[in-house]
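User: tokens in, sequence out, please.
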């Protein structure tokens, strides 16, 4: 992860999604290509895609965003570093189901936020631990939630990441249209030592010079389940190696199946 100073100097690669959020936390997480650096405009609707508007005025960030995924009509899943940080200011709303960052879809107020009790921010040069948070909306939405995968596919499994983050390694240029990038599950050894493990998925771009970046944090990583339907396997957490630009990869994603019990309990008791 990077500090705001490093972002101003280069917007280098920290946690792949949540650049703003991370910056706010004093830990910028960078990530990938073309809002997702070198990603492409979304080719199909993703009704479960959500965004959490946020800023860090004291850090010079006024129009930030984090990604999230609708997993229940009244709950979205995001990264803990997207909702917890000393300088972070949440807009207090969540936009669900739009292919545009600041318009369309359904907007709901945030009712409550539940951060995983084990969350630890990696800050400079390390990976976040238990980087998961659930956000309860004030009212349910009509959009169809995405199912949580029963298990993460093994190394080589084809995946797709989504986000509205910056499209550049060197400046905060957030995408208006939702971006997608074809990726794959990487082996543990394809990320830096100590980064990937049972709860953190090493993710490799299948497109040259591409990966998630600032503003993509908390967004979904998808894999195909039975009958070829998308299911949620990861949440953008940060870079898979220290000190590299977003587009150089790899990315690090919290494994959603690894936290399925915590998610089920939290949603089941209403917080």
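Assistant: Sequence out:
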């Amino acid at each position: 992860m990077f500090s705001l100073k490093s972002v101003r100097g280069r917007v280098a690669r920290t946690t792949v999604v949540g650049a703003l959020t991370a910056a706010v936390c004093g830990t910028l997480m960078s990530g990938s290509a073309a809002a997702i650096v070198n990603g492409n405009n979304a080719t199909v609707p993703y009704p479960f895609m959500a965004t959490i508007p946020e800023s860090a005025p004291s850090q010079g960030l006024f129009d930030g965003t984090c990604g999230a995924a609708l997993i229940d009509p009244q709950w979205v899943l995001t990264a803990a570093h997207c909702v917890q940080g000393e300088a972070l200011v949440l807009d207090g709303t969540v936009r669900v189901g739009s292919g545009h960052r600041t318009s369309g879809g359904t907007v709901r107020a945030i009712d409550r936020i539940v951060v995983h009790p084990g969350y630890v921010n990696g800050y400079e040069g390390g990976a976040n631990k238990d980087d998961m948070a659930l956000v309860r909306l004030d009212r349910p939405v009509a959009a169809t939630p995405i199912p949580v995968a029963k298990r993460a596919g093994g190394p080589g499994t084809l995946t797709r990441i989504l986000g509205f983050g910056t499209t550049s390694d060197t400046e905060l240029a957030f995408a208006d249209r939702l971006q997608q990038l074809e990726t794959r599950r990487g082996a543990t050894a394809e990320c830096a030592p100590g980064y990937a493990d049972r709860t953190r998925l090493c993710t490799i771009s299948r497109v040259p010079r591409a990966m998630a970046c600032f503003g993509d944090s908390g967004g979904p990583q998808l894999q195909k389940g039975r009958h070829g339907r998308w299911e949620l396997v990861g949440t953008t957490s940060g870079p898979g190696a220290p000190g590299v630009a977003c587009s150089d990869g790899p990315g690090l994603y919290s494994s959603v199946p690894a936290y399925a019990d915590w998610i089920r309990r939290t949603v089941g008791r209403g917080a």
